[in-house]
């Protein structure tokens, strides 16, 4: 529960679902269903990382695992170094921000290109 106790999580703490081995069976089922809703933060101890099926039909929801972090160009070495230095969550935030800035710039270029193509198409009519 390192992240739950960190200052980086303070603003979200009141809205978080936290599931540990001590959580009742009824609550576990509810937490698993609600964990993949937009705006929800779910923290689950590693015991629930394997063999627990999370179903998500919401395109906004992001579940972080090693594969997800590859998208943000974060390596296992980056993770270990950041944990050792106590900068894990700030590093995640920085890498995510860099990724989305790049993605935004690329999207903007595509929109400009598509707009020009549309204008040319309109002229041909």
Could you characterize the architecture of this molecule?
This protein has 125 residues and is mainly alpha-helical. It has two domains: 1-63, no CATH class; 73-125. It contains four helices and two strands; from the N terminus they run βαβααα. Strands 1-2 form a two-stranded parallel ribbon. Helix 3 packs across helix 4 (88-124). The protein is extended and about 70 Å long. The mean pLDDT is 77.
Per-chain topology:
Elements: E1 16-19, H1 25-34, E2 41-44, H2 66-70, H3 76-85, H4 88-124
Parallel strand pairs: 1-2
Helix pairs in contact: 3-4
Strand content: 5-15%
Main-sheet strand order equals 1-2
Q: What's the mean pLDDT score?
A: 77
Q: What characteristic shape results from the CA principal axes?
A: extended
Cα radius of gyration in angstroms: 20 Å
Low-confidence parts: none
The helical percent reads: 40-55%
Calculate the terminal CA-CA distance, rounded to whole Å.
Answer: 62 Å
Largest sheet, if any?
Answer: 2 strands, parallel
Structural class, judged by helices and strands? mainly alpha
DSSP E strands, number: 2
Task: Tell me the series of helices and strands, N- to C-terminal.
Answer: EHEHHH
Number of domains: 2
Counting H and I runs of at least 4 residues, what is the number of helices? 4
């Amino acid at each position: 529960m390192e992240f739950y106790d960190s200052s980086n999580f303070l603003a979200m703490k009141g809205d978080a679902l936290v599931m540990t081995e001590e959580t009742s069976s009824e609550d576990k089922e509810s937490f698993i269903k609600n964990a993949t809703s937009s705006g929800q933060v779910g923290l689950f101890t590693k015991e629930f990382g394997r063999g627990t099926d999370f179903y998500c039909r919401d395109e906004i929801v992001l579940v972080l695992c090693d594969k997800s972090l590859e998208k943000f160009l974060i390596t296992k070495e980056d993770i270990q170094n950041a944990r050792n230095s106590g900068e894990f969550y700030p590093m995640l935030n920085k890498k995510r921000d860099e990724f989305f800035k790049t993605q935004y710039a690329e999207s903007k270029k595509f929109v400009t290109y598509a707009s020009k193509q549309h204008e040319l198409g309109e002229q041909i009519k």
